[in-house]
Amino acid sequence: MTVSTSEHLTISPRVLYVGTPVMLLSTSNSDGTANLSPASSYWALGQMLTLGLLSGGHTLANLHERPGLTVNFPSPQHWRAVEAIADTTGALPVPEPKSGRYQHVSDKFSLSGFTPLPSELVGPPRVAECALQFETTVQRITPGIGDYHIVEATVQRVHAHADIVPDGTQHIDPRSWQPMIYSFRHYFGIGSEHGHRPNSETARFPTKS
């Protein structure tokens, strides 16, 4: 689409989620059970992840006490399962900022229908239905300017379903798998491929069906 400058409007949207991946964050509760929480503020550089989490949430409280964290990436078809736990919290009582909309749920795996899968290096389980899973250890939690915290975590191990890894490689083929994208409170897939960088590690491999 070609847009001229005269067609732009000055607006004030309430959210600025242009398009970010949906994650399912699994942390360990004090009693050894697992908490599962959707999130979508994320970026990665090397083996380091940076996550944005609302202050006062149960995931953040768990990470302050226990630094193990799994980051699981659902596919677009999982959106109803993600939505089932989107307005829940593992905190009891429900924190004041969430009291109007959220309800306490102790077992979000059961509510969502997702299956816990034991991790290998950290305490919290992975999400079996997610084709891509990271086991991470939190290195630093920093208060943000607003009502959120910045969590920095090192990826210790990556688990990828065989269907999204070209045979004989250590690479993720983005043509064989789609993350769920959160854009202005709607869920999407990433659509068709339009091109790739010259240094792509997977462009020369055939796509798995």
Structural commentary:
Helix content is 9%, strand content 33%. The chain is mainly beta and 209 residues long. The chain has one domain (23-188): Electron Transport, Fmn-binding Protein, Chain A (Pnp Oxidase, Chain A, Roll), CATH 2.30.110.10. The two termini are 31 Å apart. The model has no long low-confidence stretch (mean pLDDT 91).
Write the layout of secondary structure elements.
Blueprint: E1 20-21, E2 23-28, E3 34-39, E4 42-45, E5 48-54, H1 58-65, E6 68-73, H2 79-84, E7 88-89, E8 103-104, H3 108-112, E9 116-117, E10 126-127, E11 132-143, E12 148-160, E13 181-183, E14 186-188
Parallel strand pairs: 7-8
Antiparallel strand pairs: 1-13, 2-3, 2-6, 4-5, 5-12, 6-11, 9-10, 11-12, 13-14
Arithmetic mean pLDDT: 91
Give the overall form. Answer: globular
What would you say the CATH architecture is? Roll
**What's the number of structural domains?**
1
CATH-defined topology: Pnp Oxidase, Chain A
| Percent of sequence in beta strands | 25-35%
Provide the succession of SSEs.
EEEEEHEHEEHEEEEEE
Number of distinct beta strands: 14
- Specify the CATH class: Mainly Beta
Q: How would you classify the helix and strand content by structural class?
A: mainly beta
The order of strands across the largest sheet is 3-2-6-11-12-5-4
Gyration radius from CA atoms, angstroms? 18 Å
| Biggest sheet features | 7 strands, antiparallel
Helix coverage percent of residues? under 10%
Q: CATH superfamily name?
A: Electron Transport, Fmn-binding Protein, Chain A
* Unreliably modeled segments: none
From the N-terminal CA to the C-terminal CA, the straight-line distance is 31 Å
Contiguous helical run count:
3
